Amino acid sequence: MLSYLVHFTQAFIPVSLLTGLLLALWRPVRGERGVLPLLLGLAAGLAAGAAVYQLSLRLEVLTTARTSLYGVAIVAALANAAFLFNQGKEGTASSPRWWGALFFIAALAAVAVFTFLVYVSEQALSSVNVLNTELILNIAGVLSGLALLLLLIPLVEHLGGKSGRRLVCALLLLASLLLVVQWSSEVLLGLMRLEVVQLTSMRLTFVAKVTKYLYVLPYVQVVLLALLAFAFFYRREVPAPEQLERMQKAKRRKARSLVVFELRWFKAALCCVCVILTVFLYYDLHASRPPKISPPVMMTPDANGQIRIKADLVKDGKLHRFAMVTDDGHVVRFFLINKSLGQSSKIGVVYDACMLCGDMGYIQEKNEVICIACNVRIFRPSIGKAGGCNPIPLAHSLEGNDVVLSVQELDKGARYFSQVVSRKVKDPVTGKELLNTKAPFRHEFKGRTYFFESEASAEKFQKSPETYLGEQQSRYYRTQGYQEPGGVN
C-alpha cells in the first residue's frame, strides 16, 4: 500500500501543483471560462498517456514511446515558459499563450500517467489474479494518493490567487525547469539506448547525475508548496484593531470570519505538506530500505584449526549467524539452522552467501529463509542443498553434540564475501608484519591476497609463489559454480 501511495503521489504531485498554479494564473484573466478547458486538457493528457503506454506495450516500443513523450513534454514546458515571459502589460491572454498552457498541462498529465503505469507493470498490484488483501491495500494506496492530490489543486489555486502573479509565475517557471531537467535526462538516455545519438562520457555523466539526485525532486515540489503557503500567510489581509473598532458589528464579524477562513486555508496547506513529507520520509528512510542481517557471532578457531558449535544451540529452529576472519582479513559468514525442529541431526550448515546473488545474506521469516538480494523465499528443510538461491552448502561434521567446521573449509569460501577488515599480516618474502589495509603492495594468488612491504619483495613473490607458500588449495569463486564440499554432511 505504502509503495503505491508514494509512487502515485510522486508521479502526480507536479500535475496537482502546476494545475493549481495555472488556474491561479489564468482564472483572473479568462474568468470561469478558463477552468473547464484546463480540466479538459488535464483529462485528455491522462487518456493520451494511458493510450500511449498500452500501444507501446503492444508494439514493444516502450523506450521509443517514453523518449518521444518526454520530448513532447519538454517542448510544451518551454513553450509555456516562453509565453509567460511574453505576457502583455495589461495581463490579457492571447490564444497562443492560452493554448500553450493547455498543451503543457496535457503533456504533464500524459507523462505522469505513463510513468505510474510503467511502475505498476514492474510491481504488480497483486501477485495473484483474485481479490485479496494485497490488492485491496494497493488500490487503497492509489485512492488515498488520488484524494490527496485532488485536494491540492483547489488549495494551490486559492493560495496562488492571493499570493500575487509574480510569485505564481516564479514558482511555475521553477517547477517547470526542474521537470525539464528530469525529462532531458530521460530523453538523452532513451536516445542513447536507441542508438540515435552516440554514447559519450559527458552524456552518460549528465544522465547519471540527474538520476542520482532524482529522489530529491518530490521534496523540492513539496517545499514549493510550503513556500506558496507561507507567502499566502504573509500577504493575507488582517484588519488592524483600530479598523475593527470603526466597523459596524456586521462588517466586523465578516472581517473576522474572513481572517479565520483564510487561516484555515493556510493550515490545510501545512497539513498537506506535513502529511506528504511524513509519507515520503518514512518510505525513503525506512520502508524502502532492504532488510539487514543480524550481526554475526565472531568465532575463533581452536588449536586444531576447528570451530565447534554446540548442536543444542540451534535446536530452536532459528537462524544462527556466525563469522570468522581469515588470515588476509576476509570476513567469512556462515549460519546454522535446524531444518527439522527438535532433531539435531537435521542441522543445515551453509555460507551466508548466494551463488547467484552474492553476499547480502539471508534473513528468516517464520519457516522460510529469504535471500535479501532477490527476495526469494527458501523452505527451511531445503537449507543445505545446492542450487538456485539456496545458501551455499558448507562442509562440516558432527562429533557427539558438536557441529565441527574446519578453518580450511571456511577459508575456501572467503571469496564469496566482499567484507575485509584490518588485520596484521606478514610479508611472505621478508616476514615483516604489516596491516593488510595499509600495505603498499599486494598480489593475489589462488584466490588469496598477499601483502608486501616493498615492490622488490612483491616481484620476488610473483616470480615463484610456491617457493614462499608451498602447496596450497585455491579458494572458491562464485563464477566457478558450486564446488562439492570435502567434509561430511
Index terms:
elongated, 13 helices, single chain, 3-stranded antiparallel sheet, 15 strands, 3 domains, 489 residues, alpha+beta, Rieske Iron-sulfur Protein, 5-stranded mixed sheet
Short structural description:
The chain is of the alpha+beta class. The chain folds into three domains: 2-287, no CATH class; 297-416, Rieske Iron-sulfur Protein, CATH 2.102.10; 424-480, no CATH class. The chain contains 13 helices and 15 strands.
Could you explain the architecture of this structure?
It is built from 13 helices and 15 strands. By secondary structure, the chain is of the alpha+beta class. The chain has three domains: 2-287, no CATH class; 297-416, 3-layer Sandwich (Rieske Iron-sulfur Protein); 424-480, no CATH class. The longest helix is centred in the middle third of the chain and has 39 residues, at 249-287. The radius of gyration is 32 Å and the shape is elongated. The two termini are 44 Å apart.
